[in-house]
Amino acid sequence: MPIKTIVVGTDLGESGHRAMRLAIATARATSATLWLVHASEMGLEHQWSDLPVGARSAAQALRERLKGRFENSLQELERERKACEDLGLSCQTSCEEGRPWETILRTAVSVNADLIAVGDPVGAIGLPERLLGSTAERVVRQAPCSVLVSCGRLRADYSGARIAVGVDFSSHGLEAVRWARDVASAIDGEVSLLHVVPHPITESRMPTEWPRVLEGLASTARPRLEQLVVSEGLKPSTTVQVLDGSIGKTICNAAASINADLVFVGCRGQGRLRGMMLGSASQYCLRYSPVPVLAVRP
Prior knowledge:
about 300 residues; Rossmann fold; alpha/beta; 10 helices; elongated
């Protein structure tokens, strides 16, 4: 999968630095151009023309503080840009007033990005974030391209990394397999294909005939996974597993058990409410994966 342009959403804090680490590793492997995007606080552009006369001095003081923070952000972005160029990477910056996810998505569309890198969503624990989703989750749901999220443990160097891929045989899942193939080729990595058969009922009330049903489903899915290894041009060393359980949880647990360094999952971009009601594997992985997650768009 050719990657020419990577948009990096950064808050200029720890989360942004994690996103930068992943983006830099990807750019070095693909020679892609980086676009560093930071959203400044809202209010800098607002004129507040309808304020009472007595409040205008306070509004002006607030505007000056926001202006100072905006200028500091520009300086920090410039330092990040120079650091990237010192590594031999092509890098551009953008700092706009607005909501982070909207700014990231707008930039991704304008520069025709092939990939977006964002920070870890786990820090979003407030009620608004629980109801509406963190910046990372909102970007994943609405992105025009695949999104790399800096969950969990990061490696300093991804050469030889193992990629765990959740495969459900949909177009989204197949695209995740292709991304894994191409990324593994670029970093001399290994791929493990994981297919999860979801339980028809809770584990505490498992039907007695379920093991036989699972055996039949596994005997059908395993040859399909092995065929994917051949048809999609993956290495003969690619491993396949058929598991059962909650899809997102099982993928995360399997990634930990095989010591994977990256998790790739297909993403349909379903809405937040639908994800809460029906359960979204990609949404679960964003929250609980032990390693970074690539949410793949077809």
